[in-house]
Amino acid sequence: MIRFSLGGVSTASALRALGLAASFVVALAVPPAKAEGGAPADQACTGVPTAGLRDTLLLTGAKLRQKQALSILAIGSSSTEGAGASSPYQAYPQTLQRLLAARLGRADVTLVNAGIGGETASQTIERLTRLTRERHFDLVIWQVGTNDAVRGVDEAGFRNLLTAGIDAVLDRGSDLLLMDQQFFPAVRDPARYERYVDILGEVAADRGVPVFQRYRAMQSWALKAPGDFPAMLAADRFHMSDRGYACVAALLADELVALDRVPLVARGPKRERDPDRPVIGRP
After folding, report:
1. What's the domain count of the chain?
2. Which of 133, 145, 199, 239 has minimal Cβ neighbours within 10 Å of its Cβ?
3. Cα separation, 269 vs 98, whole angstroms
4. Residue 60 covered by a domain
5. pTM, 2 dp
6. What are the residues whose beta carbons fall under 8 Å from the beta carbon of 160, sequence distance 6 or more?
7. Contact, 183 vs 219, CB < 8 A?
8. Domain residues for 81?
9. How many Cβ atoms sit within 10 Å of the Cβ of residue 77?
10. Do the Cβ atoms of 45 and 220 come closer than 8 Å?
11. Which of 140, 145, 118 is nearest to 130 (CA)?
C-alpha cells in the first residue's frame, strides 16, 4: 500500500481540497487501460489490481485459453444499466463485450446486461438467482452495494445478502467477479459509506471471490487527475459518464484478457456454507 502525495502536498490536504474523504489510501495502480478501437490509452484511467483473479476465474481462463465461446452475465444497478451514459451502447457491459471481441479476435463472447437502476442487493439477488438458474454463464460480474450504502441499509443484512448471492452463483458452477461501490465527491458520510465497501471486501475474501475495486480506482482518478475526474462523471456528479464507463470496461478487459496467458491451476477446497444461513431463492 502507498499513500499519495500531490505536488508535495499531503494526501489528506489534497483530498480536502478536492472535497474527498481524508481516509483515502490507494493500492499501487495498474498502468492506464488500453482504449477501444486502438485509440491511445486514457492516462487518467488507472485501476487497482484485482487480487486473486488468476486463481479464482478458472473457468473463464480455461475458456479463453481453449478458444471456446464465453458467456458473461453483468448484473447490478444503474452502473450496469448505464445511467449517465449518452446511450445504452456506451454502458460498461456493452463496451466490455466489444473490447473483448476485438482484443481476442473472436465473435463468440456473449454478454447479457441485466442492470436495473436503483436496485439494492436485496432486489438484485432475486434476479441473480433466477437468471443463473435459467441459464449457465461462465462468468458473472455482480456490481453491488452503492444504493445500499447511500440508503444506509442494515449492515448485517447487507453482509448476509452478499454471502447468499455469492454462494448462489458459485453453486451453479459459474465464475464470479464482484464490482464494488462507485466513488463520487458528494458522499455525505464517507466513514459510513466506506463501511459498506469494507463489508463487501470482507465477505468476498471470506468466500474466496475477487473484487474489481472500482471505489479505490475512482478515488485514485480524483486524486491523481483532479482536472479530468469531473469528465468521468455524468452531469449529476453521481453516475458515470461515457468516459467513466469506458475506463471501467477497459480495466476489466485488460484483466480478463490476461487470463488467456495464465496456466490452469487447481481451485482450492470449497469453503463450506454456514448451515444456519438461509439460502435465497430455494424452497
Report:
1. 1
2. 133
3. 35
4. yes
5. 0.81
6. 277
7. yes
8. 11-261
9. 23
10. no
11. 140
